[in-house]
Amino acid sequence: MIPTKRLHVITWGCQMNVYDSGRMADVLAPLGYAPASEPEGADMVILNTCHIRDKAAEKVFSELGRLRVMKEAAGGDMILAVAGCVAQAEGAEILARAPYVDIVLGPQTYHRLPEMVARASRAGNKVIETDFPPEDKFDHLPESTTPQGVTAFLTIQEGCDKFCSFCVVPYTRGAEQSRPAAAILREARHLVSQGAREITLLGQNVNAWHGEAPDGSTWGLGRLLRELAEVPDLLRLRYATSHPRDMDDDLIAVHREVPTLMPFLHLPVQSGSDRMLAAMNRKHTADDYRRIVDRLRDARPDMAMSSDFIVGHPGETEADFEATMTLVRDINFAMAYSFKYSSRPGTPAAGAPVQVPELDKDRRLQALQALLREQQVKFGAGCVGLDLPVLFTGPGRHPGQIAGRSPFLQPVHLPGSANLIGTESLVRIVANHPNSLAGTLVQERRTA
Ligand code: 5AD
Ligand code: SF4
């Protein structure tokens, strides 16, 4: 019997990091590591980091300072690992500035964690693994042992070859890579056997997925979604994050033909100005984006759109920014994320001569966020009075309540019994709150 050790994982950043953190726990489970909800007293702490914006490295070092105190309180008896994109980007610098860290590992090496832990356990040993290894980590990961719940993530693609001017991802996650279809289908069935009813396929460029099919040919994402829709008891499918350039005809057709695929798409556009889109190396125009959304809404009239925006990319003028506001008014987003441009060392935009003053960035971000918030509120208000299929995901905030998710990713709260969790039913939406909807069960028309 392996003695139980306690593992605490801190996750920052995107959904892929959430997935990776779960997989790191899976890899360490055979060594006797069980999840701990707090870092205090844990035998191992992993800080899974994000490098996408802001003062990523500084944030990591300040969190490490906090963890150092806990490690010292435990008499040094705590393995401290830094994983994710900051680990990939900073590598040895982390050990130089925080010598109490034991392991630094990039996103492509976590299948080697057991061996790294063994090496780090020998007193004084430090481990850095930030290479892109020749083997595929997915071939070396065990099946997940910690169920993700009713809604689950499944990474099907990693990395990016697009090299947008502002973005570190091609450097931290490496080149685009697609997992084979058979492995994805196997993992999907396994997730469903553990209780998942909704799966979100993940990738930095998920719609660029081009994987090996079971018959040796190559499938695109459209075909993969059609196959996944056949998995018994899998009620809902989603995919994120997509690039407009990879929205091909077949994928759009799947939105028309496969009801399991939810009518909500996160499709970042970044800017509504063609001049900025060219400077960003996006290789599409604002009208290309408008046309894609038209085609998606033609395929699926209730399609809700979500996006990412960057204001203040080097060279952005007031006119460029106004073009973004116009695009937002044209599309009408159900939700969106917007960011001030943040210079990332080593990316092409970081060295651009015309950086936008911070005050202009602040003003533009405020104006954009006010417009996006207005659209989000309007979208929520438009749901009131509708009967929406809701997938019940867990208990609600109050006794006698359950929580679920609308097709458009909105949290929904309603009176209901816990034995509904994992099923989908129609819910009459009665109120729109700032971050959720309230509803009541429509008893007579069960959809699942
Ligand atoms: N500055 C600001 N936002 C960025 N993003 C990516 N890189 C940067 C950057 N350097 C945003 C993009 C992307 C999202 C994940 O983060 O909008 O779609
Ligand atoms: Fe970054 Fe652009 Fe690749 Fe998205 S498509 S990960 S924004 S380089």
Q: In total, how many domains does the architecture comprise?
A: 4
What is the rounded Rg?
23 Å
E-strand count: 21
Major beta sheet summary: 6 strands, parallel
User: What name does CATH use for the topology of the largest domain?
Assistant: Rossmann fold
- Please report which band the strand proportion falls in: under 5%, 5-15%, 15-25%, 25-35%, 35-45% or over 45%: 15-25%
Structural class: alpha/beta
Superfamily (CATH H level) name of the largest domain:
Methylthiotransferase, N-terminal domain
Q: Termini separation (Å)?
A: 42 Å
Instruction: Please identify, by name, the CATH architecture of the largest domain.
Output: 3-Layer(aba) Sandwich
Shape: globular
| Total helical segments | 13
Low-confidence stretches: none
Q: Which CATH C-level class of the largest domain is it?
A: Alpha Beta
| Strand neighbour order, sheet with most strands | 2-1-3-4-5-6
Overall average pLDDT: 94
Helix content: 25-40%
Structure report:
By secondary structure, the protein is α/β, with parallel strands linked by helices. It folds into four domains: 125 residues, Methylthiotransferase, N-terminal domain (Rossmann fold); 116 residues, Transcription Regulator spoIIAA (2-Layer Sandwich), CATH 3.30.750; 88 residues, Transcription Regulator spoIIAA, CATH 3.30.750; 60 residues, Nucleic acid-binding proteins (OB fold (Dihydrolipoamide Acetyltransferase, E2P)). Helix content is 33%, strand content 24%. It has 13 helices and 21 strands. The strands form six sheets. Strands 2-1-3-4-5-6 form a six-stranded parallel beta sheet, sandwiched between helices. The two termini are 42 Å apart. 44% of the residues are buried. The structure holds 5'-deoxyadenosine and iron/sulfur cluster.
